[in-house]
Amino acid sequence: MLRYKGYHGNVAFDEEAGLFHGEVVDLRDVITFQGKSVDELQQAFHDSVDDYLDFCQQRGEDPDKPFTGRLMLRLPTEVHRSVYVRAKREGKSLNEYITEKLSQTN
Questions:
Q1: Where are the alpha helices (DSSP H) in the chain?
Q2: Residues forming beta bridges with residue 93, ordered by sequence position
Q3: What is the pLDDT of residue 46?
Q4: GO BP, one example (predicted)?
Q5: Exposed, middle or buried: residue 34 (CB in 10 Å: 0-12, 13-18, 19+)?
Q6: What CA–CA distance (Å, rounded) separates 23 from 14?
Q7: What's 10's DSSP letter?
Q8: Sites in the chain below the pLDDT cut of 50
Q9: Are 34 and 20 in contact (CB under 8 A)?
């Protein structure tokens, strides 16, 4: 996984073409890049992200952010209630409790 300016690129190798190709994975917009070597691939990734950011700026649009920090989640009622009760027992908001638990999985 490549990282640059908060964006992540997923890479695959096409053996038949002898070419690495990738895509920025955390956007609604489609941004791709390719290269024949690791150095060329990394440069193409950086160039693609920079071009995307420049394009957005020229159009007066905000670039799509890799992550907003908001996560929509649907739970069965019983699970929602149980997690809420556990959070309250620990004196935490539901958001604090879930964030803490998910952070422990790293």
A1: 38-59, 77-89, 94-103
A2: none
A3: 97
A4: regulation of DNA-templated transcription
A5: middle
A6: 14
A7: E
A8: none
A9: yes
